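Chain A, query sequence.
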Amino acid sequence: MLLGRLRYGRSSRAEVCQDADMDRLEGLLVEVADCTLCSSALPLGPRPIVQASARARVLVAGQAPGRKVHESGVAWNDASGVRLREWMGISEEVFYDPARVALLPMGFCYPGTGPSGDLPPRPECAPDNPQAPDDLSIHTQLGCFSHFPVVAYYAPWDSLSM
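Chain A, predicted structure.
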């Protein structure tokens, strides 16, 4: 599964290693952009939305893009994104700089609407080989479907303190 392989392969080793990690991440981001794994189950079709760089030190992990985000193609480009940036105390310029902030949803595409709001991320996006990024400065999980999976898949238990 793509999400399980989308690891922020940063390294404190030589710059050559970071260049290799960046190349690997770029390849994975191309795969994510081309993903159509669950297209038949998506009401608006696939439009994977993720922002990442091997240099990012902040990871904002959420559920899945909402309808507005799906339409714009920009992560957190809605009222919740405005509140999140205010809460984090950072500007849009910083937030949307992939070298500073990685935006990783548990589901890459808008899953549709259910009886009480947006549906949870599609199960096809669940990681099958999770590996926690080892040198992020901040882990932030948002949304009722993101807390446990994001913590379990991307943040080592001993690194969390909120």
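The CA atoms of residues 66 and 110 lie 5 Å apart. Strands lie at 58-62, 101-105, 113-114, 117-118, 138-141.
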